[in-house]
Amino acid sequence: MPTETRAPWLNNYGDVPKTLNYYQGTMWEMVEDAANSRPDHIAYDFMGKSTTYARFKADVHACAKALCAAGVKPGDRVTVCMPNCPQAVVMFYAINLMGGISNMVHPLSSENEIQFYLNVSKSVCALTLDQFYPKFEAIRKNVPTLKTLVIAAIKDELKPLLKVGYSLTEGRKLPKLPKNGEYITWKEFIRRGKGFTGRYICHKKREEAAVILYSGGTTGTTKGILLSNLNFNALSAQVISANPIYSKDDKILAVMPVFHGFGLGVSIHTFLSNAGRCVLVPRFTPKTYAHDILKNRCNFIAGVPTLYEALLRQPEMKNADLSCLKGVFSGGDTLTAELKKRFDKFLRDHGANVVVREGYGTTECVTASCLTPLHLYKEGSIGQPFADTFYKIVEVGTNIEVPYGEEGEICISGPTVMLGYLDNPEETANTLRVHGDGRTWLHTGDLGVMDEDGFIYFRQRIKRMIITSGYNVYPSQLENVLEGCEAVQLACVIGVPDPYKMQKIKAFVVPKAGYAADGETLELIKAYCRKNIARYAMPYEIEFRESLPTTLVGKVAYRVLEEEEAAKRGEKVEAKV
Asked: For the range 128-133, what are the long-range contacts, defined as Cβ-Cβ under 8 Å and sequence gap of 24 or more?
């Protein structure tokens, strides 16, 4: 007899529906229905150029034909290694239309990381920007499945006058594409698709795999996360349900990246599948982010806490009119109570009738699965579960639910929970477990607390992990990379508190015999890091040590190094699980 699943948060829902009906088709079919309902309305803006839903729909169909003309078949994986720009969005939905699976990759990944993502997904086709072509060229011979490499350019999506300006400025910095390289330009790729006369539309089931995103999982080792059409469409419905203030005329500033669940699931798919408008931002700084909010009069913005911290310091925001804002969401890292208070006051002082609403989620359930409701807030809480989503706090390492107010591992069950880890049944079984209530639960690897009203409080990661500017960085991975350098005998990586990034990365290195702890060796290690580590995960400091502290069983005692760094700042380090 299954046990009952507790859901005290349902008492707080008010007028928000407790359960929802989810779209029966694919991601693209949901977006296409929205496009057909508002063909003349703007789907997205990109650097001053607007694209209607009718044009967007035509572009996706043309791209789907091009994929089929290139030999891509239903079920094949296609890598999208792009920032937020039209070609990335069009390709993402075209892959879905013709029955493929999108493999979403960070374009600032190192060569070795890109090679890993291509090989683990067995991608037959990839799309990237011209500026990233050298990375693909360098590893192409090591990716036997990759048959087609499509190269896009930012300038191709710009208005004529802006295109000229871009070519004279940013365009001059880009590497020249070889004339006889193994690639096809985006324009030529689409042109070849026009001659395709076969079947290119594939009606897949909503439960079937559609997207691969990447995360460290519960062990800190990079894994592909297999997500379905339903996962994304359910998230879309849940986000809109939790925001009854949403209107189809609303705009969202889409700065969170397309290769990230937050950016792809909330900023892009949720809005396009509900006939809203996305302002696509391919690259941003706090200064340009401030400019884009004001210029586009966006109604919804989403970001990591570091972004909101930076906005408070932008001169452009001093006299800003933010009355257009209807929703401000924070995720990707813990929003401190102090920062929330300061930013809420900033919003009030600039005409916004909203507060920052913190959410929580993992890539294993696309992104957010929990959000602070509009009408109720508890300090320190990350909110309450979305409709049809259940949270449970269990004793670490078990399925045993703990009483309200006690700390344990956060577990999630609901329609956005992943299908599993790509080709990794053992880790899937460790993470997705059926409990006594008959539900399948995602064990997040995070510690938290639930109060008697169903509000969730995030504490920390169970496994050792660093969060820098909203990105998850796993020390063990960086240590493996560093120890692959010819000059490094032993390495340990820790996170150091930073007022802007929340944490920055510091590496401690013991040089190999024959290598001095000097500037020459340091430059050799840095050059190796630049080739093998993504820019956002790069150590800000590398400190040489003759030896590293160890535990009684001989493991490197990273906590000792954390304590030493904390002592330099006059702080204490809390014990970690």
From this structure: 128/79, 128/81, 128/82, 128/152, 129/82, 129/83, 129/85, 129/153, 129/154, 130/174, 130/175, 130/177, 131/174, 131/175, 132/81, 132/107, 133/175, 133/177, 133/181, 133/183
Q: What residues contact 498, with CB distance under 8 A and at least 6 apart?
A: 468, 504
- Token match 């990079």: residue? 222
8 Å CB contact between 54 and 39:
yes
Residue 495 to residue 562: CA distance in whole angstroms: 8
pLDDT given at position 341? 87
Q: How confident is the model at residue 490 (pLDDT cuts 50, 70, 90)?
A: confident
Q: Which residues contact 229 (CB under 8 A, 6 or more apart)?
A: 25, 26, 27, 96, 204, 205, 206, 207, 208, 210
- The number of folded domains in the chain is 3
Distance CA 476, CA 220 (A): 7
Burial status of residue 290 (CB atoms within 10 A of its CB: 0-12, 13-18, 19 or more): buried
Token duo for residue 499: 């007022």
503, 497 in Cβ contact below 8 A?
yes
Give the burial class of 167: count Cβ atoms within 10 A of its Cβ; 0-12 exposed, 13-18 middle, 19 or more buried. Answer: middle
Would you say residue 210 lies in a domain? Answer: no
Q: What is the pTM of this model?
A: 0.85
Range of the domain at 477: 467-568
What SS3 class is residue 213? Answer: strand
Place of tokens 């996360």: 225
Instruction: Classify residue 169: in a domain, yes or no.
Output: yes
Of the residues 402, 432, 461, which one is the last residue of a structural domain?
461
